Amino acid sequence: MPPGHFQPPLTTSPVVTWDARAGIMWGVADQHEPEPGSNLPDKSRPADIVDAEVVDGDLVAAPTPAKPAQPADDEEFRQFQEFQKFQRYREWQQAQGGDLAVPPPTGAQPAEQPKKPWWKTALGLLRYKFVRRLIYLLVLLLLLNYAYDYYFGSSNSSSDTSSSGQPPVRPQPRKAPTPEDALFDIYNLLRGDDPALACGLFDATGENGFAVAHQAPDCATAAQRVHDQITDRNAYANPKLGYDAIDATGREAVVHGCRIQVAGGPRLGSLKLTQQQDGGWAISAYALQSSTCP
């Protein structure tokens, strides 16, 4: 050592062992405790020595969160955005309490609406007042036509049957209680809407004579021809009988047409009536002119 240089005395540095360190740490911990308790380690017992070994090695880096993969192209990205929008729409619709509406697949054509039935289209026209009024008018006309046919009948039914070539239907026999009633019945039926009903007052022989006298193929056609000549139905239904217009002998009676006053239509010929087994009278013969009249 050079002269004049002061050298401090060498001191030995105290060696701090693991036991001393542990005691210091426990002492620090004891200072922070508000009150010593039974759970504190016993200071009279030496602390266990823990060998700490430092391991050299590379630090393991924490995994970074994976980023969502980007779509491969623009079309996939657009479809991805549409899917996200649909997901948000579904969540909103569920929150509102509505049913989920499944959208049609991308690029698919919308389903064609089924065609409405024809009767629904027809019922839709009833919304218009003009159409309803036409229907009311049509129904009213049909009801009036039905009522007219029901109460007044058709005057051309007998002639249509005869002209069609089919055999005429013989009317239901109508037997009069007296010869006078038979005369009034024939005039009344001939002026009615169905003059063929007058043929029910004749028997088979009388029907043939009535048709021949009026130059008709059958009784119904002859009755229609007489009906067409009537101009006043009410007057024709009330002929005036003379005191000698009817001659009755036993079960037969003759009505002289020339002794009857008729208005509103043609005068009928003479009638021969025969009393039937049931007591009624039927016209058994007919002639336009009577030889007994002057």
Provide structural commentary.
Residues 156-179 are annotated as: Disordered. With 294 residues, the protein is α+β, with helices and mostly antiparallel strands. Among the domains are: 120-152; 157-287, Nuclear Transport Factor 2, Chain: A (Roll), CATH 3.10.450. The chain has 9 helices and 6 strands, in the order αααααααααββββββ. It has helices spanning 18-32, 74-96, 118-124, 129-152, 157-163, 179-190, 204-213, 219-228, 233-236, and strands at residues 240-241, 246-249, 252-255, 260-261, 270-275, 281-287. It has a 4-stranded antiparallel β-sheet. The protein has a two-stranded antiparallel ribbon with strand order 1-4. Strand 2 and strand 3 form a beta hairpin. The protein is rod-shaped and about 140 Å long. Residues 8-33 and 154-170 have low confidence and may be disordered.
Compressed to H and E, one letter per element, the order equals HHHHHHHHHEEEEEE
- Average pLDDT value? 73
Helicity, in percent? 25-40%
Strand order of the largest sheet: 2-3-5-6
- From the alpha carbons, calculate the radius of gyration and give it in angstroms: 65 Å
Q: How many beta strands in the DSSP annotation?
A: 6
